[in-house]
Amino acid sequence: MRRLRGKASLRLALGLSALLILFSLGAMALQYRATAAELDRRERSLLAADLAGLAALYDQRRIIALRQAMEFRSAAAPETGMLYLLEGKDGTRLAGNIEALPEGVTPIPGEIDATAPVTFTLSGTNYLGVARELRGGFPMLVARSRAPTEAALAATRAQIFATALVLIALSLAAGWLASRFIMRRIDRLNRLADQVAAGDLSARLPGPRADDEFGALERHIHTMLDRISHLTRAHGRLSDTIAHELRTPLNRIQGKLDKLEGDPEAVAAVSSEIRGTVRIFDSLLEISSAEAASGGGTGLVPVSLSKITREVAELYEPLAEEKALAYGAVIESGCQVLGDRNLIAQLLSNLVDNAIKFCREGDAITISLEETAERHILSISDTGPGVPAEEREAVFERFARAERDREVAGHGLGLALVRAIATRHGAKLTVLEAEKGFAIQITFPKLYNDIG
Question: What average pLDDT does range 391-400 have in this prediction?
Answer without folding.
Answer: 60
